[in-house]
Write a structure and sequence with these properties.
- The protein is α+β, with helices and mostly antiparallel strands.
- Helices cover 20% and strands 33% of the residues.
- It contains three helices and 14 strands.
Length: 248
Amino acid sequence: MHTSVTKRAFAAGRSRTIAVGIVMAIVCSAASAGAAALITGADVKDGSLTGKDIKDGSLAKGDLDGNVRDALSIRVTGGLPTQTFKASNDTVKNTKDGVEFGPYADGGAEGGSVCTSVLNGDPFSDVKHLAFEARYTATGDTGGVGVPYLRVFLVNNNHDAIFSPNTQAPDPDVDEGPFHTWVATAGSWRYDDDGGNGPDSPFAEIRHDHATEKISKICVSVGNSAGTNLSGLLRTLEVNSKDYSFGL
């Protein structure tokens, strides 16, 4: 009886193994057929896909080939002016470490900017993303007022929208010394109020209210704010889909 039960159990187990093998073969075959039917780049007509066809956040830089990544990451080398960048005065220089500002003995009365023309002529509504990485130092504490700031100049430089790290609520990221990355378009801004006399508003609100105004330049600045022996260093600037890094 024991031998008979064992043989039946073995036969049943073997049958189940064969059945599972058949099912797996069918599934793998279907998967292979599905993979073979996937659309490849050769099936897509050049120029037929645009950014609107790709879901936001669905592609990371790692998903892009080297040529595309290189097109989005741009190294800004050489003395200013270079490429789409220029300095407002000779206190702003592109160095091996990035764009240096100052030092300004009187950071309240002196300062400088590095500006790009990459979006010149486009409406303010076209600004989707702005971020920059920078640091600053001064003799003594500036209370955060000496921090680098970003401005979008509009209507032939007659108006500007400004992002000030020191006015960001609830906890401004403005420590002197270390590098900071500020995502300006995720913060609050002011319009025609460089002095910070009025309250900030969300970037989306400022952009909506001035959507059709044409961009004349985008600048990162240090100085004309506060601080003794104020200096700054800008390493990167992100404008929409392009990342600019500075150095020689």
